[in-house]
């Protein structure tokens, strides 16, 4: 307390807090209470158990107290000293007197009680207590506690034998002594326990991001929340946000197992007919194509999050607008595209009521490693396919790497990734395996036995990455694709590689990946804008090798080009196609891809391409149906296989006429003769050859008819610059 010390007749009685050598003014009393030349004051100071300080005074020195001030401050819960200091001039040194000083210490009592969790509370006494206290001195809800721990001489941690009741609980104390064994506390106290809001207690269950054209709902965005708990929850101070905007929710209660609509504040009236609704400003505008939405409690803890995209709609017409995305199974809040779909309600959504797609679709499987990225030689990022339980820290024994590298530390990054710092650097040209155990998804399913390979990528050389297959005339509702092949023994990173159609002037280039994308030796990768439709139309495709492109070059059905640029912008491979490159017996090439025959022959060589087998139609993500590698001797000519059947079944659909010469620059003519010696096909006429290569005969005669079953003679004539001539003859059998 400070009495006076101001100037003139405004001196009052003020409340200060002493922090070491500093005094901080907490509250000011009534001015003038100590403003006379001679003052007789009786002052009373009280502090209650809620740390409310109250000051009273009687300016006549009696006991008729009037309130001066009140202030709540809990900085110091106990004190050990009391004293008086007079600051005065020399003429006043004999004008002070103090009398009737009475310090009434409160009896031993609890001055603070905090609930830590469902079984622990922390209690603080107003005095130091004896350490003779035992568990039989304390009961909670009429059951003795399990354990006691001293924080200091006046603070205890009590561990209950049973979980606290929701709401009111009773703490009963019998026989706790103060430090000097002079006072005994015997009393009971009430405290409330309300379980913490856990992730998944409140869910985002419906998202209306594209309200036009409306099918009956207001043309305004909204989301729907669902209270997935058995408690009424007040959402005051909660936040709904996307990556750029965060809106604060007002004080509103959402009852157990009930819904709440949230929309922009100006749209509240339009949604009232559908149920309980609140508006927020600012409103996080919902992107039509995709967005990342978070619902957080006042402490910033994420209670639920949804990262939606257009491909969550199974009905492509719903993508055009006016249809809400709805969660299918509310007991599977961690599910993503597999647990969401477009509303089937006639008006396009069900704000404030049960979702139209409601069904049982539980998550019964643990997470799966989706990708392993080396951010550098000492850092690994593991991507998993679903949200993880990130409530516990990752231990070193949750991760196994072989060959062993040593793990410095590991941590969750966002809710699907694990970041690992290594002790020893990853070596080049070494294949590593990594596996996880003890990791759970956010529904509690543990990761199954798994092992994924990874390696440090190397700089690719010409011919290491090849264009291997292209579908430029897809079925209706389907999508184009381009397949690449790693024709090397190295690991290659396709980050910042691009594709484009070189036949278009000022062609736009399209990024394959802006993140590390490791291509393993002899791996196929399929580039497409719609992996879902691709696997639906070609179920034998290897979807794990599909790369979803946000957009692709346009490929005409009659002719076009696909070109590949490396991360430095250098042309790495290029292929120009025409519809005429398809097998002549195909009545309709729609839905059938062109496949590369050999990895060794040039991409630009038309004879190195053939239609995929009609029974297969396409081989996205795995070996081509028409692939063939051959071996020829020096200065020789061969036909493989000796018997072929051009019926487009993917087995020996054509004959490969392969050659290897001593010197390049020789001229060749290749002719097919029937059993009577008549020429039926001129495969090459005075064509300049390299050292090695091949031609193909698909069983089509010169007049574009299918040749008859029988034995045919292939005549291979070589003309050298010095005038020499060499002729090879090979027989081949054609059958169907």
From TrEMBL:
PROSITE patterns from the UniProt entry: LTD (PS51841)
UniProt cross-references to InterPro entries, sorted A to Z: Cu-Rt/internalin_Ig-like, Lamin_tail_dom, Lamin_tail_dom_sf
Domain LTD: 450-579
Keyword list, A-Z: Signal
Protein name, entry field: LTD domain-containing protein
């Amino acid at each position: 307390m400070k009495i006076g010390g101001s100037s003139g007749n405004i001196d009052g009685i003020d409340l200060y807090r002493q922090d070491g050598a500093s005094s901080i003014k907490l509250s000011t009393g009534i001015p003038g209470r100590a403003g006379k030349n001679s003052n007789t004051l009786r002052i009373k100071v009280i502090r209650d158990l809620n740390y409310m300080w109250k000051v009273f005074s009687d300016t006549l020195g009696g006991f008729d107290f009037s309130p001066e001030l009140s202030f709540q401050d809990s900085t110091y819960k106990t004190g050990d000293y009391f004293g008086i200091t007079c600051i005065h001039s020399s003429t006043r040194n004999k004008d002070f007197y103090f009398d009737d000083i009475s310090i009434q210490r409160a009896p031993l009592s609890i001055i603070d009680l905090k609930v830590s969790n469902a079984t622990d509370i922390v209690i603080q006494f107003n005095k130091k207590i004896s350490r003779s206290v035992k568990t039989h001195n304390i009961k909670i809800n009429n059951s003795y506690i399990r354990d006691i721990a001293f924080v200091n001489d006046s603070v205890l941690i009590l561990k209950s034998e049973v979980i606290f009741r929701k709401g009111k609980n009773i703490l009963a104390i019998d026989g706790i002594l103060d430090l000097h064994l002079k006072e005994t506390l015997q009393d009971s106290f009430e405290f409330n326990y309300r379980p913490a809001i856990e992730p998944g207690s409140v869910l985002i269950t419906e998202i209306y991001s594209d309200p036009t054209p409306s099918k009956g709902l207001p043309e305004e965005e909204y989301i729907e929340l669902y209270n997935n708990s058995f408690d009424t929850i007040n959402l005051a101070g909660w936040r709904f946000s996307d990556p750029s905007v965060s809106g604060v929710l007002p004080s509103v209660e959402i009852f157990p197992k009930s819904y709440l609509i949230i929309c922009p504040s100006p749209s509240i009236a339009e949604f009232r007919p559908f149920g309980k609704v609140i508006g927020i400003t600012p409103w996080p505008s919902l992107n039509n194509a995709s967005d990342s939405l978070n619902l957080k409690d006042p402490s910033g803890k994420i209670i639920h999050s949804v990262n939606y995209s257009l491909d969550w709609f199974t009905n492509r017409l719903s993508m055009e607008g006016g249809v809400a995305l709805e969660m299918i199974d509310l007991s599977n809040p961690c599910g993503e595209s597999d647990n969401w779909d477009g509303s089937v309600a006639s008006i396009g959504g069900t704000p404030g009521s049960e979702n139209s797609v409601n069904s049982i679709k539980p998550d019964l499987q643990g997470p799966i490693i989706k990708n392993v990225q080396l951010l550098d030689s000492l850092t690994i990022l593991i991507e998993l396919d679903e949200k993880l339980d990130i409530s516990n820290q990752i231990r070193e024994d949750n991760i196994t790497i072989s060959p062993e590298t040593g793990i410095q530390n590991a941590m969750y990054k966002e809710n699907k990734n694990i970041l690992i710092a290594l002790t020893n650097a990853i070596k080049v040209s070494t294949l590593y395996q990594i596996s996880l155990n003890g990791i759970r998804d956010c529904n509690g399913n543990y990761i199954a036995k798994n092992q994924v390979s990874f390696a440090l990528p190397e700089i690719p050389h010409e011919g290491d990455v090849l264009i291997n297959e292209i579908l430029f005339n897809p079925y209706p509702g389907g999508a184009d694709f381009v397949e690449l092949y790693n024709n090397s023994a190295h690991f290659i990173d396709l980050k910042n590689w691009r594709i484009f159609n070189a036949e278009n002037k000022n062609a736009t280039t399209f990024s394959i990946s802006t993140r590390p994308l490791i291509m393993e030796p002899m791996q196929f990768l399929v580039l497409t804008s719609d992996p879902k439709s691709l696997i639906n139309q070609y179920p034998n495709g290897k979807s794990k090798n599909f790369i979803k492109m946000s957009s692709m070059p346009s490929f005409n059905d009659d002719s076009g080009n696909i070109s590949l640029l490396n991360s430095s912008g250098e042309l790495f491979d290029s292929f120009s196609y025409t519809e005429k490159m398809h097998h002549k017996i195909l009545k309709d090439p729609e839905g059938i891809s062109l496949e590369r025959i050999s990895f060794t022959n040039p991409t630009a060589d038309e004879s190195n391409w053939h239609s995929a087998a009609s029974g297969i139609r396409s081989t996205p993500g795995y070996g081509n149906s028409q692939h063939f590698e051959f071996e020829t001797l020096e200065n020789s000519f061969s036909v493989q296989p000796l018997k072929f059947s051009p019926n487009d079944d993917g087995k020996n659909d054509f004959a490969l006429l392969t050659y290897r010469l001593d010197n390049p620059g020789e001229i060749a003519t290749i002719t097919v003769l029937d059993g009577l010696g008549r020429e039926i096909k001129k495969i090459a006429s005075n064509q300049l050859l390299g050292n090695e290569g091949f031609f193909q005969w698909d069983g089509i005669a010169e007049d574009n008819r299918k040749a008859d079953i029988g034995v045919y003679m292939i005549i291979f004539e070589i003309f050298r610059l010095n005038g020499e001539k060499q002729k090879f003859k090979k027989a081949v059998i054609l059958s169907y």
